[in-house]
Amino acid sequence: MVTVPYKQVLAERLDGLSPRAAALRSVNVIRREADGRLLGDNVDGLGFLKAARAHGFQPAEKRALVVGSGGVGAAIAYTLCGSGVRQLVIADLDKPPAEALAKLLRAAFPQLNIGNQYPNLSVFDLVVDATPVGMGGNGELPLAGQLLETLNPSALVAHVVTNPVITPILEIARELGCRIQTGPEMARA
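Predicted structure:
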């Protein structure tokens, strides 16, 4: 497994990349071929989606919000787009990476509605926190508390952070009746 900060660096140094890793310019697994060549892939999104499906989430025709456009957020967004979501919204305080990710996804999946506008969270079937916010038990939230109160109780809310397992956003989502997916679930999938 390859972790931050090496995912992008190694992607540039391998002999080949999967189409997904090439699009994301990021790898998290490397395989040595029989001929000695090193091939990279990024399976973060696949692990995430497998865990989400275990919670009953089926991406076809669903609306998803991904908060965070870094490596894991990009991988999850790419996988969701490839799995048939109807709409994907990318939210990030750092606008240039979010806009670059949206542009990449629009080119790869031109049939999808990919944007960055959301007046509230009630329309989303899936809300993914792909940021480190809330890591280490600091109590921080990736979105305003008032906005989180608009979560649809039928939504699946997920966070990629592994410590703590139940982050503040997951606590709020659970209190509102949402299904939740923890970071460790993604890693086990």
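Summary: The chain has a mean pLDDT of 94.
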